[in-house]
Amino acid sequence: MRNIWLIAHWEYWTRLRSKWFIISTLIIPLILIGFMFLPGLMMQDEGSHKVIAIVAETPELDAKCEALLHERYRLKDGSPKYQVISLKQAVVDSALMQARALLDSMVIDAFIHLPENVLDSNKVQYFARYLGNYRDQGEIQGVVNSVVMEERVKRAGLDQRIVRELTRRVRFEMVEISRGETRKYGNEFLTYLLPIIFVLMLYFAIVMSAQVLLRSVLEERTNRLVELLLSSVTPTQLMSGKIIGLGLLGLTQLGFYLVCGWTLSAYQNLAILPPNQTVFFLIYFILGYMFYASIFAAIGAVFSSEHDAQQAVSLFSIVSVLPIMLSSYVVTNPSSLLTSVMAHIPFMTPFLMIMLIGIETPPLWQFISTAALMIVAALAAMIIAGKIFRTAILMYGKRPTLAEIWQWLKA
Length: 411
Fold this sequence. Notes:
By secondary structure, the protein is α/β, with parallel strands linked by helices. The protein has helices spanning 2-16, 19-44, 61-72, 92-104, 118-121, 134-155, 160-166, 188-222, 225-229, 235-268, 275-302, 306-325, 327-332, 337-342, 349-359, 364-392, 402-410, and strands at 50-56, 82-86, 110-114, 125-128, 174-177, 183-186.
């Protein structure tokens, strides 16, 4: 046991003092925080002046659109965001050709065509060089809808003030009820995003630690250092010490992420990391890391080339990324049968369970079944990896075949 802890101590402190480990540990929380808050900050940006043209076949609609755009949307300096050019010609096609020429010469950013039967056809054309600016399109579309609705109300002889009062939009207050009738006020953006942030934190901590283990084994094989090590310790002690040392390194990294999360929670006055979730973080990290580390250690022992090893690792990396790819479905359907089945697949269990915990507390049976499954899977992976590691660690010049590996496992 002493040899195992000596190897673990060496692996931990050597990697911990690496400048690239420090840089990556500091950068990843900044990236996650950026993903979390940068879109909101960008959406708060009111943009710049826009010039649009309106070709309206119905009298007065262009003037009403211009007035409402000026009223609703202004920049920080108080000036109107949209400058409107009204194109009125006897022939509509000539006005459209003039608008197209202004658009081509970049005098205007976009133009809209309000046909004469717009109140009946409910159809307006929007022309722009680039249709990716959905924010401007949404603002212009909202204004045109309001103007067309007011014109319909006017033609129907109804009181516009009463209609406006009756058609006010309802404001939703988001309240989440957890087991135990605890109410939590929030918004749908955080409810959707936070579980994904939790999974990304766990993914980086597990996969990066396992990747370091893989490169450590490959490096020692390439430098023939493993031969010197095995003269003093057994292959099982060497593999166990590496897994424990780099697991502690991953816990250190995960602990740093949690501290960042707690600090951010306190600063934003949000309860995004309750203590029970922190406990589950540690449980599923340890089990997920032992499972993936055993697989990566076996791969590092089998291959002598990092290029070949990375190709094999890519298969497992794709599987571990699946929970992130399926996050939209899991967040919107946390209690479905498919989600429960996927949560019991060992390659996906740690990530999906953390995601489900971030959404709502799963039932007790799901905690017990997934934790028991991961314990069995991690033990099986370590036993299999130990057999492969003991036999393949000193093999050079020949890559073992799948049949040979199978024979090792049966021996």
